[in-house]
Amino acid sequence: MDFTSDNTNGADPAILRALINANEGFTAAYGADHFTAAALARLSEVFEHELAGFFVATGTAANALALAAITPPFGAVFCQEEAHIMKDECGAPEMFSGGAKLIGVAGGAGRIATHNLKARLAEFPRGAEKQVQPAALSLSQVTECGTVYTREELSVLCALAHDAGLIVHMDGARFANALVSLYCTPAEMSWKAGVDVLSFGATKNGAVACEVVIFFDEALAADLPYLRKRSGHTISKGRFLGAQMIAYLENDRWLKLAAAANLRAQHLANGLAKIPGVRLPWPCQANEVFAIIPRAIDRALASNGARYYAWRLPSSEDACAPLRSDEVFVRLVASFATTRADIDQFLQIAADTIRDNDVNAPLGLRATGPA
Prior knowledge:
Layout: H1 13-22, H2 34-47, E1 52-56, H3 59-70, E2 75-80, H4 84-87, H5 92-97, E3 101-105, H6 114-123, E4 133-140, H7 151-163, E5 167-172, H8 175-182, E6 197-201, E7 211-215, H9 224-230, H10 239-249, H11 253-273, E8 288-294, H12 295-303, E9 309-310, E10 327-333, H13 340-356
Helix pairs in contact: 1-10, 2-10, 8-11, 11-13, 12-13
C-alpha cells in the first residue's frame, strides 16, 4: 500500500527490455546516436509539429533548463504559487537561469486564475528598471493539486501571456496523465493551446529516467545545448534515453500506462468519498488523490503499513474548510503498477476504523517529504 509517489514503483518491462537491447554494440555518444534521432523523429510525429528536443534524466533539470533558455537573469517567471518549480526544486530554475525570479500567482485547486495573472503582470510593468522583467509563464499540467487545466483554460492563459510578451512553458512531468484525462491530442494540449516549451516527462509513467525538453519554436532552443552541457546534464551514453522514449511511445504505451494509473486513482477517490469523516477538497482528475482524513484513520493506515505523504495545507483561494485538530491532509498517488487489491485493502482499513472508532491505534511509519 505505497501511495507516496509515482516514482516509487519500478519501470515498465517493455522499457527495461528496450534498455537491454540498446546495450548491444557501439553507437555515437552524447545524444548523437540513432536511438535519440529516432526518438526525436517520433516525438515530432506524436506532437504533429517540427521540434527541437533535448533529453535529460530528471524533471527538475528539464524545468530548470527550459526556463533558463527562455528567461534572462533579470527576468521573471510567473507560476502558480504552489507550483513544483516554486516549492520543490530547491531554487534550480533560479540557479540555472543565473538569477531569474519566480513570481507566484494565486488560484484554486493548483490552477492559475486568469484575473490573478492579470493583476500580477500589472505589478511588473515592462521597462521598469528597478524590477525584474516579465519573461515567461510556467503552467503545471497536471497541477500540484492533482487537477488538470482544460484546453480552454490553457488557451486563455497562453493568449494572455503572449499578449504580455511572455514565453509559455509547461511542466509536463505528468503530461500523459493529463492527456488521457482530457481525451485530446498531444498537440491540442501543447502548441495548439499556445505552449512554446514543454518539459515532457516519462519517468513517473514507466521510464527509468527519461525527460525531454521540447521547443516547438526551434529558435528558442538556441542556448539549450550549452546550458545542458554546462549544468552537467548532457548524458554521455545518450542512447539509453532515446531507447526509453522509443519504447515509451511505441503502440501508445505511454497513454495506456497513464490511463491505468488514472483509473486506479479514481477508484481510490470514489472509495474514500464514501467513508464518513473523509473530505476530498478537489476532484481526482489524473493519478493523484488529495484527502482530509480523521487522525484515527491516519493512525490505523500507518500502523498497517500504508505509506503516503502528509501534505501542506491548501492555498487561501481554495474553498476548503480549515483542518480540525483531529484531521490530517494527505496526498495519495497511484501509478500504472498500483493494484486494485492494495487500494481495496487501504479503503477497508479506513472504513473499519470509522466503524470501530479505533482512535487509539499506534501512529506507525509514514513518509515525511514530497516527491
